Amino acid sequence: MIKQKILVTVDNVIFTLIQDQLHVLLIKRDIDPFKNQRSIPWWFVLDNEDCDTAAYRELEEKTNVKNVYLEQLYTFSDPRRDPRWRVITVAYMALVARENIFIKAWSYTSEVKFFPIASLPKMGFDHKKVIEYAIQRLKWKMEYTNLSQFILPAKFTLSELQKVYEIILNKKFDVRNFRKKIDSLHIIKETWEKEIWVQYRPAKLYKFVDKKVKIIEII
Amino acid sequence: MIKQKILVTVDNVIFTLIQDQLHVLLIKRDIDPFKNQRSIPWWFVLDNEDCDTAAYRELEEKTNVKNVYLEQLYTFSDPRRDPRWRVITVAYMALVARENIFIKAWSYTSEVKFFPIASLPKMGFDHKKVIEYAIQRLKWKMEYTNLSQFILPAKFTLSELQKVYEIILNKKFDVRNFRKKIDSLHIIKETWEKEIWVQYRPAKLYKFVDKKVKIIEII
DNA sequence: CTAATAGTGTCTCTGAGACACTATCTA
DNA sequence: TAGATAGTGTCTCAGAGACACTATTAG
């Protein structure tokens, strides 16, 4: 039988929106290598689970939310990506709505924290590369699917929806053209509720018609 | 240190066009499990190489061609996908031009053979799923990149180019609209050569402007 | 009534798709 | 000259993008 000494892990790039900025969850390493540097959450795949299961497990451990969007991205396999052992990692990205994420990650100490992607700290391993890959995939999929629903609260305003696209795609849209386009796609519907506690004209709240990921040209 | 007993392999879904049909390279297994069934070529990742390198190595061993398009697809990790051991596989797809592929795979015995995707034989492992995934990715990428160049000979006619799209996307195109579209993309240029040995009006030969993969809306 | 954001319609221009005939080569 | 494929232009319609004002609420 073949001799091979490779360890397999899953890495989770967990995205959310906080105060109009895209953020990624990072943990602080308390052991070497890269002690005190940040890294994205990762862990070993167990012997009797597949990678999706492992990624979910790791995700719940850090955020305590279920019902999250999770997608396999890419497998990183440079033989020297971990200085200790030969480790291959299957990278995932997760999208969580800020209304869900507040539950656990926030209650941690500074060991688990969201960082805006515009100012990421120094990171161990090849995690910078993994995050860059994830951002690319996120942008790309935002353009042609209804993925934005997973980063929004269940009910949201059209302005919030537009802002999600503007932030992630880093691009401004015309209000009227944006609404016309969204309307033509039939991916969201009105609720009969409105914003409350706002000091201006309250906006109508909408929700997504379909929880499934659909292929749609949004922009 | 963590105990983990996982083996890592790479699977290659090797596509080419033969006689107006999309084909996949399969080998015949001469040992159990799945003895005498077909499978896509795969092999173990060596300790000091990354997965891309392993996939190239496996590819050259079967086809003897270099300069091939190779892309990582997805990592399949069901704990029971190999009945003997716990094996995780990183799947790749390769595109080869028929002018290149004839070199070695053809000279093999029946052990290594191309099968049209419309009539695939019974296959071991989860290879049906892997091939289906690869076909999806291929279709998808055909629509928005200049990937078709890797499945065509270096010089080709516009009819051949159109046929590539028609076969892979399983869809007919209007000759004039297709040419108008391709022309507007500036991805190919005329050579000053024409077809020879044909029994009708010989067509002009074209070649791709750029070997790099470009993002372009083709259809 | 002021400040702040929500919400709405029209025009222009580009590009996709429908459609049919002539040109060039071999045998 | 028959058979086979190459090669070419126009019109219509849909959708993208540019653009500015009125509506509604809280304080």
Please describe what this structure looks like:
The structure is a homodimer of 219-residue chains. Chain A is α+β, with helices and mostly antiparallel strands and 219 residues long. Chain A folds into two domains: 6-120, Alpha-Beta Complex (Nucleoside Triphosphate Pyrophosphohydrolase); 147-208, Winged helix-like DNA-binding domain superfamily/Winged helix DNA-binding domain (Arc Repressor Mutant, subunit A, Orthogonal Bundle). Chain A has five helices and nine strands. Chain A has helices spanning 51-63, 98-101, 127-144, 158-169, 175-185; strands at 7-18, 21-28, 38-39, 42-44, 69-76, 87-95, 112-116, 188-194, 204-208. In chain A, strands 1, 2, 3, 4, 5, 6 and 7 form a seven-stranded mixed β-sheet that branches. A two-stranded antiparallel sheet of chain A has the order 8-9. The N and C termini of chain A lie far apart (52 Å). The model of chain A has no long low-confidence stretch (mean pLDDT 92). The interface between A and B is medium-sized, with 25 and 25 residues. The first copy, chain A, binds a DNA duplex (27 and 27 nucleotides) through α5.
